[in-house]
Structures are given as C-alpha cells and as structure tokens.
Design brief:
In chain A, α7 runs antiparallel to α8 and α18 packs parallel to α21. By secondary structure, chain A is mainly alpha-helical. Chain A has 22 helices and 4 strands. The two termini of chain A are 44 Å apart. In chain A, β3 and β4 form a beta hairpin. Chain B is an all-alpha fold. In chain B, 78% of the residues lie in helices and 1% in strands. A two-stranded antiparallel sheet of chain B has the order 1-2. In chain B, β1 and β2 form a beta hairpin. In chain B, α9 packs antiparallel against α11. At the A-B interface, β1, α6, α7 and α8 of A face α14, α15, α16, α17 and α20 of B.
Chain lengths: 542, 531
C-alpha cells in the first residue's frame, strides 16, 4: 500500500462510512451500529499498519517523517495535501483510532436518532485522525475545524439537561482558538514568502525557518524575535483553550458533563490531546524563541491548572464533573512538562531535563487519553444504571457490582497516579524535570499529586465503599456488567497497566522524535537569541 | 472620414463585435419582451410564464458559459479588453466572470420562484419581467465602462427592486418597506449622479478608460495633498460615487433600508436583493477604483491608499454593526438581512486590502473577493431559499417556529446547516476559503498600513460573534423540540424543493474542497483588472 493511499484511507474511511450510513434504513439501528463499529474497527486495524516493519523499519525522511505524502491541493496558494507520521503523531493516531472504536462500542446506550449520531461520530473521527497526520498548516487548520460542528451537535442533541449551553460554549471557545490560529497561520505564511521563496504552509519547512536552519529557497530566512513572540502567544492561546489550561478551561466541565458517555470519552481522550499535540507540532517548532521567552508562562499556567483543577475537583459532588476537573489538573502536567525549559545566559540549562519533561508530557497525554476515557466510561456505566451521578448518594457499589468496581477502581487508581500504572510515569517524569526549572514549581506540582490522591480516594470511599447504597434506583444495580462494557473497561485498564509497567512501549516510539524535537527547538532558540538583527528577517511580502 | 464611413464602422462594430459579446444580455431582454407580449396576446394562459423565465435564464446562462472558454482558455496570456457599443461597456474577464455568476444566479432564482410559488400564475409575467430587468441592470453594472452607463445600470437594477419589494400587494409591511427602500434609493441615486457629474465635469470625460488616463494630469500637480481645486473636486466626486455604491452594498452608514426592505419583501426577493445587486456593485466598485486610482503615480497611489483605509474602516463598522444587530433578531429574514450586511463588510475587506496593498499582495484581495462572491451566490441564496421553502411549509419566518423542523425536512435543514457553516466560515464549506483569502490579503496589507491589522482583528472577533446567531437558527432546527408537534406532522418538503436545496448547497461544499480551479480563474480575473 502506498503511503498516500494508506494515510488517506485512514483519515477518510470514517467520512466515507458516514456517507454510506445515509443509505441505511432508519428503523435498522442494529445494522447501522454494526456497520459503524466495523468502520471504526477497520480504521483501528489500519492505524496498526504503520507499526509493521515494512513501514516502521523504513528509514525516515529528512525531518523524521515516515509515510510522507505530498500532493498539491490549492496550487495558487501553495497549499498542499501533506501527510506523514513520526514518533510524535503515531501514538496519538493509535490512541484516536482505538478510543473511537471503544467509544463506538460504548455507544449502545445512545438510543435516539442513532443514524445522525453515528454519522456525526464518524465525521468527528475523520477530523481527529486528520489533525494528527496533517503536516500542512492549512490542512491541519481545516481538519481542526472539521471537529467543531459534529461535536457541537453531538453534545447539543444527545447531551444532558444543560446540553445546549454546553454545546455553544464548547463551540465558542474552540472557535476563538481557531480564529487565533488562523491569524498565526497567515502570519507565518506571508513571512515565509520572501524573495524567490514561495510562501509556504509546510509545517516542516516553516519549522526550519523558525529554527534558523532553513535551506534551499528559504536559506537564511528567519522569523524575528518579536514575530516569534507574537506567533507563539497566538498559538499558545489557541491550544491552551483546547488543552484546556486555566483560565480557558471553563468550557470543559460543562461539555464533558453534558456530553453522552462515548463523546465524553473522546473529548477527554482525544480532543484535549489535540491541544498538546498542536503545541508540540506547531507552536514550539515554529517559534522556539517565543516559546523560550514565554516558558515561565507555560510553567505557571501548568502549575496553576494542576492545583486549581485538583482543588475544584475536590469540591465536586457530581462524579462526572469531578473526573472532568481531574482532566484539567492532569493537563496541567502536560504544560508543565513542555514548559520546563530553563535558559541561562550561556544557553539552555540542563537540556536533558527538558527532554525528560517533554517525554513526560507526551507520555502523560497518552496515558491520560486511556485513563480518562476509561474513567468517563465507568462513570457512564454507573449512570446508565442509577440515572444520577451524585457522589454523596452512592455507597457500597463494590458489594453490589464487584467486577465493575474492580475495573473502575483500577482505572481510578491509574488516574490518581499510582506507581505501576501509566499515569504515574508521566507525572513523575514531569515532576523530576521541573526541579531543574524551579524547585518551587516542582514542590507545588508535587502538592498537586497529593491533592489528586485526596479527591480520588475520598470519592472512592463515598461511592464504592460504605455499608449500603443510599441513592435512587437501587434496583438498577442488579444489572451486572455486560461483556461489552467489561471488555471496554478492561481493555483500557490493561493498557494503562501495561504502559505503567513497561513504559518503553510508548517511549520507544516517541523518544527519537522528541529527542530530535528538543535538539532542534533548542538550537533554534539559541540561534534566534544570538542573532538580534537577522539579515533576512521575514517581513513584508511586497 | 465621411459620415457614411463612420456609420458603416459603427454598424460593423455593433453587429460583429458588440452584439455577439452581448448575447446573454440579449437573451435576457428577449425573455422580458416575450413575457410582456405573452400578456398582450394571452399566450401566458397557454405557456406558464415561469417556464418562459426558466428557459430564458437557462439560455442566457448557457450563452455566458460559452464565453468562458473564449476568455479563459487563453491561459495566462493577457486578453483583450474589448470596448463594446462605442466604449459604453467593456468586455473583459471580469465581465464574463460576473455574467456567469449572475446568469447562473438567475437560473437558480427562477427555479426558486417556481418551487416556492411566488409569484402566482397571474402575476408571473410582471414578476419575472421585473426580476429579469433588475438582473439585466446588474449585468450592465458589472460591465459598465462609462459614468453615464454606471448610473443608468445602477438605476436599472434598483427601480425594479423597489417594485419587487412591494410586490405582495395589500401587505402593509411590504408597501412600507418598498417606500423606505425607494426613498433611500432615490437619495442615494442623487448623490451618485452628483458624484459622477463632478468627476466627469472636472476631467472632461465620462469614460472610465479616459478617466484613468487623465487622472495623473489633475492629481498631484501642485505640491501637497489636495492642493488644487480640481483634485478636491475629484475626491469629492469619488466620495459621492462611493456613497452611492455603498447604498447598493448596504454598507454602514447606508444600510438602514436593508433590514426593513428584506423583512417586508418575500424571502425570494430578499435573496435576490442580497446577491445580484451586491455582486454587481462590487464588480462596479472595483472598476471605478481601478479607473480613478489605478494609475502608477505617487499622488494617485496616496489617494488610493487613503480611500482604501476609509473602506477598511467602513468594512469594520459594517461587519460589526451587522453582527451585533443580527444577534437580537427573532425573525429569520431580518436576521439574515443583518448577516448580509455583515458579509458586505467581509467582502469589502478584499477591496480595501487591494487598494491599500497594491501590487501582487493586493491582487490576492481581489482574488479573494471574486472567490467569496461565487460562494456567496450559493450560500446566501441558499439561506433565503430555505427560508422561503420553510415559510411555504409552516407559514412562519420566526426562529421559534423552526423548532424541531429537522425531523420533517431533513434535507432542507441540512442545507441550512451547510449555509450557516459557510456563513460563519468553517471548513469544509466554501465560505471559509473566501474568508481565508480576504483575511490573508488584509493581513499582508497590514505591512503597508496597520489599520488593516486592526481590520483583521475586528473581522476575527466578528467571526466568533457571528457564531451566536447562526447557531441559534441551527439550535432551533436541530436541538429544540417543537412546541406544537401536531402542526409539524403535515409538513413536508417537495422533491423539487429538496433538489433546489441540494443544488444550492452542494456547490458550497465543493467550493470548499476543490479550490484550485476557481481560485485560478479568480486570480486570472483579478490580474486582468489591474494588468
């Protein structure tokens, strides 16, 4: 299979499936569900293909990209259909396809208007997969936007009581982010077109310009310091909304709580990661100097998110809302890991520490993708049975549903960062690296771990332990966990244990790409710092 | 040269050059005559007027498509700008491009009137005569090469428009709207006429081509800005001309007629008024700017700059006011009237960027404008067509009555989703590409004047803000449950209506995905204007 065909198939098969679903009879929900599950399953299998030796063993291209695809799309604007995979995008691609498959299986509880639901779900999957393989900034942007509308309807139509409010809030926040990204996108586009060089949307070329090592037509072109600061600020705001980081996080609890269970799984598991991925793929490589200068901001927002998210989570009485705030807290570690880039007068201090932090951040995103999806799923299972999520009205679930509780407790322990499980690895990497940047920040972040443990344990105590169940619908608890539900939870639990025990599963893939990332970005920041007045600063296009 | 010789040349030129290039307009004229004669001889009882209209529009469209190859097949080579009818009109790529757009629009428009049943059979000839007359005016606007022609074309577009707004006889609101439109229009026409006479009087010519040549001899002769009286007169005249065109474009502060006229008129006419005269007025604006400020001399470029920045400010005000006002509307037609105003603001960004930046970067503004116009034809007419179709089914144009409609009219509501998506500017709808292009052009014009950056910022904020009210329409359609579900039971869209909605919305999506072909054409058109 040629790379172009394979990657295009992965990205557009769900959209094609959505079109096929239009032809189904609306009174045949079973058929439509099986079809949609098959599509997501096939996509998952296809995303495993890049792991085959014939692809994975191949020597990567100049920028570490495998399976590179590069076709013209809009010639007059030099917009290209450019896809590819490297160690950074591959784990996210796998995570997305796996979670889509599992979330599709979890969609049995969605009853009304199943046809529309499945179509939007599949369109959403196309957008998510596409974002992780796009290497053209324009393509990245449009696929980022493709996720908006399906998600708006999925929350707004199939959501809980305050669904409309949550849906429009989600839409609005994300649209603000994408408009900011659009401006940054146009800025770099025009800045890269200078002299003989055609303006470009190619993220890899733009990265070389940003890092001051451009060659060919673009040789000698750099982005000025002010330009880098502005660009990074715009992109950071755009992705911090998506991640989300305090103070842009308020859409998240609403959206997560109101969304139906499978959509919460995808929101927490994949959509938040788009923010972190965007920082790593676009914001840092293109604007290393801006990232360097603003690293204190990234770290500060990270630590604030960790602490604030944990404190707010502790105060929640709604189980799903608590899990949602735990996501805010956990995404804070991602920011912290990315930001711990200490720069002294003589250059970066302890580049290995920063590399550790970046590795931790990426690992954290992968682990959180699995664990938070699992946590939302087990909360959903409980909600399907007793139709409420009030932490204070549970109790004794362990006794009533032992198998379910075992899986749920496993996932919650993974969430609180228990050693031996995936969440721990990411957190500890980030914490270790943050000491180098600022011991104060490290201490504060470590405090966050304690708070995390506190709210998870107190929740577990009130919901799963205790003498008896005190809430409404006790009869619902007698429905045992179905095989389908058990399978979904078990898959996620097993994966988070496997990654916790043997983190090299993920690190082996990500480490080379991130090593390259750290080296290049660091060198880029160094170059920008030294050349206060570059000879050929990208400016006016005229 | 004898008089006979002159006459011979004139006839030869008219018959061999002008008339063949003018074939689409002739077909439109012929359709008008047939419609009127039909009434005279009573053949409209035998052949339905709407079929005459559809056939006429389709033939005109086919004729305009026929010219496409002739102009664009020449590829990158510069093509001739042929002056028609002794220089009153001009035949160039922009003419052909606008002709295709407007004739295509006319086809869709006649299809819409056939589907929605406005007008009824009795009124058919009158209605279609006015519709075709107004379109003819728009076609002439897009190709006028003379200030006199400019004025006549604008009036030819407007006057049938006044009547069309008040076409629903006996409806108070319609009459009021028509009167309001007429009074404003007459005022604007006066201003426009005054502006053209100032320019023509100062330069001693009404021909746009001549004006372009004579401008350098008047502007910048004395040192300092606006030093000579002639220069001041020209600037004043240009201002008046811009004001007259701004009325057609419903730019702030000349927009007051727009919401009232749209609300009073039927949705079909609102759709017509929001597209045909505006598209033509943009083409005309580009021609006027090129003629007045196109010359390569420093003082003229300064003037172009100044006017460009003025347009940028107007553009920012227009989109902001349109969006803010749309937010509070409960009537869908009125909401989309304000949305139309806002979109005139976005479209104007392209012109402003062109005027401010000039050169290669400026061409991108024009390219974006023409691309945006093509998408705009489909998405805006689409929105109004859907309003008309829903009105026929539910007898309501209030947002609240749209609740839960999607279950009864899935294709129509899907179409509305695409139109709103496109109007917000979200890929894969074509509106995104148009917006992207004008944003890009304005951003690069920001290196010349930072005002353009402020404009981009304003447009970005407006884009986000506009989400609110477009989402309200979608929310009503999809997310809210109907208050009166029995009433919904009988609602159904006819297959013709569904087909029309698909014909209007599928191109919107195609223009978002397959950008290359049209963007190549619009880039060519933009280059031909300047080059």
């Amino acid at each position: 299979m040629s790379p172009a065909f394979l990657l295009s198939l992965i990205v557009f098969l769900p959209a094609f499936g959505a079109v096929c679903l239009l032809g189904f009879n609306r009174n045949n929900p079973r058929g439509m569900r099986s079809f949609a599950v098959t599509v997501t399953g096939v996509v998952f299998v296809l995303t495993l293909f890049p792991l085959l030796p014939m692809y994975f063993g191949a020597t990567p291209g100049m920028h570490g990209i495998r399976l590179a695809v590069d076709e013209p799309w809009i010639g007059s604007w030099n917009i290209r259909y450019q896809l590819g995979l490297d160690g950074l995008s591959l784990p996210f691609l796998l995570l997305t396809s796996l979670l889509c498959f599992l979330a599709m299986l979890a969609s049995w509880s969605v009853g009304k208007q199943i046809k529309g639901y499945l179509i939007l779900f599949l369109l959403l999957e196309t957008g998510m997969l596409g974002v992780f393989v796009a290497l053209d900034f324009f393509l990245f942007y449009v696929l980022f936007e493709v996720m908006l509308l399906p998600m708006y309807f999925l929350i707004g139509f199939w959501g809980g009581p305050r669904k409309e409010y949550a849906a429009i809030k989600f839409f609005l926040y994300t649209l603000v982010g994408s408009v900011l990204m659009l401006i940054a996108l146009l800025m770099v586009y025009f800045a890269s077109g200078q002299g003989t060089a055609a303006p470009s949307f190619d993220l890899l070329t733009l990265a070389t310009i940003g890092q001051g090592r451009a060659d060919g037509d673009y040789a000698g072109l750099t982005f000025s310091q002010t330009f880098q600061l502005t660009g990074f600020a715009l992109l950071f705001a755009a992705f911090a909304i998506k991640l989300p980081s305090v103070p842009f996080h308020t859409w998240l609890p609403d959206a997560h709580v109101e969304a139906p269970t499978p959509i919460s799984m995808l929101l927490a598991g994949v959509l938040l990661k788009v923010g972190g991925y965007g920082l790593l793929r676009v914001a840092y490589p293109l604007f290393p100097h801006g990232a360097q200068v603003l690293s204190w901001l990234v770290v500060a927002l990270g630590v604030i998110s960790i602490l604030y998210g944990a404190l707010v989570a502790m105060a929640q009485t709604d189980l799903k809302r608590m899990v949602a705030y735990s996501s805010v807290s956990h995404m804070g570690y991602v920011l912290l890991g990315l930001g711990v880039w200490a720069m002294g007068d003589a250059g970066t201090i302890g580049r290995d520490h920063w590399r550790l932090g970046v590795n931790g951040a990426v690992f954290m995103m992968i682990a959180h993708g699995l664990i938070s999806a699992g946590m939302f799923f087990v909360v959903g299972v409980l909600y399907d049975r007793v139709h409420h999520r009030n932490i204070d009205e549970f109790g004794h679930i362990l006794g009533r549903m032992p198998i379910y509780s075992g899986l749920a407790l496993g996932l919650f322990f993974a969430g609180l960062g228990m050693p031996g499980m995936a969440g721990f690895i990411g957190e500890i990497f980030v914490l270790l690296s943050s000491w180098n940047f600022s011991p104060t920040m490290a201490v504060l972040a470590a405090l966050g771990m304690i708070l995390t443990a506190a709210y998870f344990l107190s929740m577990i105590q009130r919901v799963y332990l205790g003498p008896r169940y005190i809430g409404p619908h006790p009869e619902g608890l007698s429905f045992a966990l179905t095989k389908r539900e058990g399978g979904i939870a078990a898959t996620l639990l097993v994966l988070s244990i496997a990654l916790g025990v043997y983190p090299k599963l993920a690190l082996n893939v990500t480490e080379p790409a991130l090593r390259r990332f750290v080296d290049n970005v660091d060198a880029g920041a160094e170059a920008a710092r030294k050349s206060d007045v570059p000879q050929r600063t990208a400016r006016n296009v005229r | 040269m004898t008089f006979e010789r002159l006459l011979d040349d004139l006839i030869r030129d008219t018959v061999h050059v002008s008339l063949p290039a003018f074939i689409a307009e002739l077909i439109v004229c012929a359709t008008i005559v047939i419609l009127l004669l039909g009434r005279l001889f009573g053949t409209d009882r035998i052949v339905t007027p709407r079929w005459v209209a559809i056939v006429g529009a389709t033939l005109a469209f086919a004729a305009s498509i026929g010219q496409f190859g002739e102009v664009f097949a020449s590829g990158r080579s510069p093509i001739e700008h042929t002056a028609l009818f002794t220089g009153l009109l001009i035949h160039d790529p922009l003419t052909v491009y606008m002709r295709i757009l407007l004739c295509g629009f006319l086809v869709l428009m006649t299809w819409l009137t056939a589907v929605s049943g406005i007008p009824d059979r009795e009124d058919g000839p009158d209605f279609h005569t006015l519709l075709f007359g107004s379109t003819l005016g728009a076609l002439l606007m897009a190709q006028s090469n003379n200030l006199l022609m400019l004025f006549l074309a604008v009036e030819m577009t407007s006057v049938p428009g006044y009547v069309l707004v008040g076409f629903q006889k006996g409806r108070r609101q319609s009459g009021e709207a028509a009167l309001k439109y007429l009074v404003y229009g007459a005022g604007a026409a006066g201003v426009l006429l005054y502006g053209t006479s100032l320019v023509a009087g100062t330069l001693g010519t009404a021909s746009l081509a001549e004006i372009a040549m004579r401008m350098p001899s008047v502007v910048g002769i004395n040192a300092g800005p606006l030093a000579s009286p002639a220069e001041r007169t020209i600037v004043l005249g240009s201002l008046f001309i811009f004001a007259g065109l701004a009325f057609k474009l419903a730019l702030v502060p000349f927009h007051f007629w727009c919401p009232d006229a749209f609300e009073g008129a039927s949705a079909e006419i609102a759709g017509f008024l929001s597209v045909a005269p505006k598209a033509a007025a943009f083409a005309l604006l580009v021609r006027v700017v090129q003629s007045l400020f196109g010359a390569d001399s420093g003082p003229i470029e300064d003037l172009r700059h100044a006017f460009g920045i003025g347009l940028a400010v107007v553009s920012a005000l227009t989109m902001t006011l349109g969006n803010l006002a749309a937010f509070g509307q409960s009537n869908v037609k009125r909401l989309f009237a304000y949305s139309t105003i806002a979109h005139a603001g976005y479209l104007l960004m392209g012109v402003a960027a062109w005027m401010v930046a000039g050169g290669e970067a400026g061409l991108r503004g024009l390219e974006g404008l023409f691309y945006y116009l093509a998408v705009y034809v489909f998405m805006n007419l689409g929105a109004f067509a859907i309003i008309a179709i829903i009105r026929n089914a539910t007898f309501s144009e209030e947002i609240d009555d749209y609740a839960g409609l999607w279950a009864r009219m899935p294709i129509v509501c899907g179409g509305m989703a695409v139109c709103c998506l496109s109007l917000i500017g979200i890929w894969p709808a074509g509106g995104f590409i148009g917006k992207f292009m004008v944003f890009a052009a304005s951003l690069s014009a920001g290196w010349v004047s930072p005002v353009m950056w402020a404009l981009v910022a304003a447009a970005a904020i407006n884009t986000v803000w506009s989400l609110f009210y477009y989402a309200r329409v979608l929310r009503a359609m999809y997310l809210e449950s109907p208050t009166d579900s029995d009433r919904l039971e009988e609602i159904e869209a006819s297959p013709f209506a569904n087909a029309l909605v698909l014909a209007l919305t599928i191109p919107v999506l195609l223009l978002g995905v397959f950008v290359e072909p049209l963007s190549r054409v619009t880039a060519f058109v933009a280059r031909s204007i300047v080059g």
